[in-house]
């Protein structure tokens, strides 16, 4: 049954949210009347203020863009209320929304979250799912409540985590899925076809922000675990270890995602860069060899395994 278009205020900041917004802008059942994102941040060597991906897309479509630092002032809450949204649609916004904001939505405040809730509530669900060796994750569309990712689930869809997926590739897949599922959810809500399902809080796990220290590789572990760590930490903060050069210098070496190789020879101890194998550096783990095609020594550019083998390891022969 046709009715008036729903008014949507979209709230998001990074590329994940941009991809979701692109999908929502195509929905015929509603119109985005305003976009909220975090304030512009300095970036690059010149530390110039740069627009977020969501802001860039919103401006391309001529949409009002509002960037409050928070919603502690009554003025900011009233400004949001003036848009008279039926739905607040939130995806990776990065700000805590108080009840006074959530209550503004005439129909419902909705969040697009990149995990199968109640697993991986929090800031880094994509990365944590890979690091912890999961083979499936997904998107949950939930009703926003004041508690962090605790609201009832409106719709969800799972997605396989492939063996070579990195945080980057899985992010892109989930963002597309999130946009599609957000539109399906809005359509189903309009038709009264959704029954919210409360989360089982006893099963909840949390996905806190990544730290640089978590990128440190301990090689005396199974290669599969190391592979998961490297993939989940790519591209930020990156997985690394301290390597001792032939000249006796300790160099911090960032390892790029590769693959698990054959069994570790018993005479090669974990953490040893054993040589070049099929244009990959072979690094010993507890059980297998880890093969990576690219590395980045500290204070140097990213390079191929062969370049590192010839230059830093001084192992090439004419």
What's this entry about, in short?
The protein has 318 residues and is of the alpha+beta class. It contains eight helices and 17 strands. 25% of the residues lie in helices and 27% in strands.
What does this structure look like?
With 318 residues, the protein is an alpha+beta fold. Helices cover 25% and strands 27% of the residues. It has 8 helices and 17 strands. It has helices at 15-24, 53-60, 74-81, 99-102, 125-131, 167-190, 223-232, 305-311, and strands spanning 6-12, 30-36, 41-43, 48-50, 65-66, 87-91, 108-113, 136-143, 153-160, 239-244, 250-255, 259-263, 273-277, 280-284, 288-292, 294-297, 303-304. The chain has a 7-stranded mixed β-sheet. β13 and β14 (280-284) form a beta hairpin. α1 runs parallel beside α6 (167-190) and α5 (125-131) runs antiparallel to α7. The model has no long low-confidence stretch (mean pLDDT 95).
What is the alpha-carbon Rg in Å?
23 Å
Task: Report helical residue fraction.
Answer: 10-25%
Structural class: alpha+beta
How many helices in DSSP terms? Answer: 8
Tell the overall outline. Answer: elongated
User: What is the first-to-last residue Cα distance?
Assistant: 76 Å
User: Strands across the major sheet, in which order?
Assistant: 5-2-1-6-7-8-9
